[in-house]
Amino acid sequence: MKETKNNSGITGTLTWNLTGGILTINGTGAMSDYSEWPEAACCTNRAPNSTLWKFCRKSITTVTIGSGITSIGKNAFCACHSLSSLVIPGSVKSIGDNAFEYCCGLTSIDLCHDSRQRNALRDMGLLQLPRVDVSCNLN
After folding, report:
1. Is the pLDDT of residue 18 over 60?
2. What percent of the chain shows pLDDT beyond 90?
3. C-alpha angle 42/31/52, rounded to 5°?
4. Strands 29-30 and 94-95
5. Which of 62, 66, 93, 126 is most exposed, with minimal Cβ within 10 Å?
6. In this predicted model, what pLDDT tens digit does every residue of 90-132 receive, in sequence order?
7. Which residue has the higher pLDDT, 46 or 6?
8. Which of 99, 11, 6 is nearest to 59 (CA)?
9. DSSP for the chain, written as a single string
10. What is the distance between the alpha carbons of residues 1 and 29, in angstroms, rounded to a whole number?
11. Are the CB atoms for 17 and 11 separated by under 8 Å?
12. CA separation for the pair 11, 137 (Å, rounded)
């Protein structure tokens, strides 16, 4: 993993870029699993495998996952409190535990018709929230 305090970086075969609150992750293959929550560890260098966008978490409003990505890692976006919109393509076949834990501002999820995605998000409690609008994309 190449760590940076900028608004972009590389993690494995994936690249990420944060511009104007939109975090875009592109590349091919699986996203890594990341350190266990607690927020104190996620927000500092104390976590042994924390997300590279940890320094930008407060400014992330939208996460767009690229169509070559096959999974979303454990704890990948935990405590992104400003996250309101999420786009998940059909290439994503699994979503790790707590991937969107404490994303209390989430109001829109755009996903494909894949029941695995829907089930994973339901199991996290995201689809039961009355404020979350779920739409289906064709990607």
Report:
1. yes
2. 29
3. 35
4. unpaired
5. 93
6. 899 889 888 888 888 888 888 876 677 777 877 777 766 556 7
7. 6
8. 6
9. -B--SSSEEEETTEEEEEETTEEEEEESEEPPP-----HHHHTSTTSTT--TTGGGGGG--EEEE-TTEEEE-TTTTTT-TT--EEE--TT--EE-TTTTTT-TT--EEEE-S-HHHHHHHHHTT-TT-TT-EEEE---
10. 15
11. no
12. 26
> Which residue type is seen at 121?
L
Closest to 67 (Cα-Cα) out of 104, 13, 28, 96: 28
Tokens representing residue 106 in the block: 């989430």
pLDDT at 39 over 60: no
> Average pLDDT of 79-94?
90
Residue type, 97: D
